Amino acid sequence: MRNENKKRVYFVLSFFIRIFGFAGSTFARQTKINRFIFCFVLTYPYFCSEICKGMSTIIYPGPIFGPVQSRRLGVSLGINLLPSDGKVCTFDCIYCECGFNADHRPRRKMPTRKEVRAALERRLKDMLINGPAPDVFTFAGNGEPTANPQFPKIINDTLQLRDKYFPNAKVSVLSNSTMICKPEVHAALMRVDNNILKLDTVDPEYIQTVDRPTGKYDLQQIIEQMKQFNGHLIIQTMFMKGEKTVDLGPEGTKLVPVDNTGDEYVTPWLETVKAIAPQQVMIYTIDRETPDHNLRKATKEELDHIRDRVIAAGIPCTASY
Asked: Which of 126, 129, 131, 197 is the most buried (most CB within 10 A)?
């Protein structure tokens, strides 16, 4: 827990202890303890909110969340195919808004196809009556959406419900690209409107440092598989600055630079993007607090410079700051 959060916890606990105390006779102590428990239960929501203030983790509590205003996609209704109490991802990115994998091991199972369809239809019926109309249905949430084994069938259901309730909305999938070698995942992604695939760099060492794949990750295989979409993909790239905290055990920690905005990273990345030939590129930077607190946003000028290089190569590109 971060220091400011510890201070909040200590403040709340000391507040109760100062008021009630626990000295005196056995009967008096028991009466005060009972009062303490009663008041603590009443103020528990506040207690929890004080602990959570400033923490970087966002865990979505169900299969459907939002809508939210997305920097890149508009009014976005979120679809989370991962457990509602933790994170399941084939990456363990140091900038992930859901936090580190090890800190959020889920106990619950992934939602089933039936559960997702029912929750989505309920929400769409409500939005049809009360608004707002979504611009996009976005598969994101607590990790990698394509890791759900029912992902292809859930895509089928989502397209059907989209056509029934909001036919003008798009369906987007935000993926880290690790599962695109599976034929069934590839086929499902070919059916969605916005197949948004992550490629933060083409430097293998940087990927291991920042994206931190949890299993085997063959960068060249991923790139070749991206080409197999024949342009039906949007490449999404995070540009940032700062340092990664590396644990050295008893010796403490050290900071490793993770700035990928320089030419040594951008130029080979751009050459690879040109070879993949996506329909669009989205570049962005940190927008929320990150689990590693030594990271910094790329500047607007840096993002604009990279964006302009992509556009000059003949590929549409947007930058989100």
From this structure: 197
